[in-house]
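Late entry, evening session. Most of the bench is empty. Finally got around to the prediction I had been postponing all week. Sequence below, unchanged from the version circulated by S.P.
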Amino acid sequence: MTPTNRNGRNSINRRAALRGAAGLAAAAGFTPVRFAIGQTVSVKVGFLLPYSGTYAALGHNITEAFKLRVDERGGKLGGRPVDYVAVDDESDPGKAADNTNKLVTRDKVDVIVGTVHSGVQLGVSKVARDTNSLLIIPNAGVNAATGPLCGSGIFRSSFSNWQPGYPMGTVMTERGHKRAVTLTWKYAGGEEILGGFKEGYEKAGGKVVEELYLPFPNTEFQALLTKIADIKPDAVFVFFAGGGAVKFVKDYHAAGLRKSIPLYSTGFLTDGTLKAQGQAAEGLFTTLHYGDGLNTPKDNAFRSAFEARGKGEADVYAVQGYDAAQMLAAGLDAVKGDVGARGELVKGIEQATIDSPRGPFTIGKNHNPVQNIYLREVKNGKNIVVGVAAKALMDPGRGCKLA
């Protein structure tokens, strides 16, 4: 049987053609450019994202924004057209390794873009590291991905769980809140975000007087709200997202606690949930690497272009997908599309300054964005940026041997 390559071409005939072309070039007295013929071969991008279930909207926005950036570049990265393979990870950690291996071995993608759920990300990152695959993480904040599981080809276009919580510690102490209670679901994402907050808060002189948890995804908050009222802290810092965030904000407001015990969080408490939270969310302060009302030319252009596609409103997840494409473009441009020049491709991403809708950011030693974390306030149903909680904040990347 005559072997073929992944694009279905006869590989023996192609090699013969290349040898013949090289011989003609030598006879003519010039050396052919290494990658000139390969410019017609597509770059293969594998999306491993949730396209069903709770996080489907996030996977959708990441995908659409990535494609938007490619379309803005004429459908090419590094001078090469782009093909896509999309796999629904179903937010199922048990399927992470198998799905990732299929993209690597069956589909032979040049880069994996995934994922959203931190539990799934652990499996994806392990396979990417073991197979030396190029991976760009467009959301999942699990600290290990740019910590102990970091790898030379693993990058993140989003955040580490440590990043958005850490600067809120300084914000709260500066606002006079010296005693705080923390509350989240008992799982890795919540614990890591609260861990970042606690580190920043205690460094700034605050004290966490009680750490409260409930099982994921339990939303029976009443007993915990009663306990908070009994403790009487200066403020409360929480992590919830999605439906749990909606119910918690409403329950906290209904209990009358906002009047005497201010509530703070990272932006995930209010991103994508403000409409459902309604008046109960007004005035809440959160920290995140993006927000409404940045009003920069780059962000305004991005939001208009994304929404013109008719696939929904731009949000932090769309920004992260857009910037995943920008990071890949920086690497491929550096090698003129030659994915085989792995070292130079990686260096191209490492040395890039990404002109993001969130504001320009660079890539840290552990391949996590070094970025501004904004202080946002809910005003008239929008997460309005009211300040910078931390400038160019670098994730510590604890346990990463690249750092």
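Two things to note before I forget:
Residues 290 and 355 are 13 Å apart (CA to CA).
The longest helix spans residues 316-334.
Will write this up properly tomorrow.
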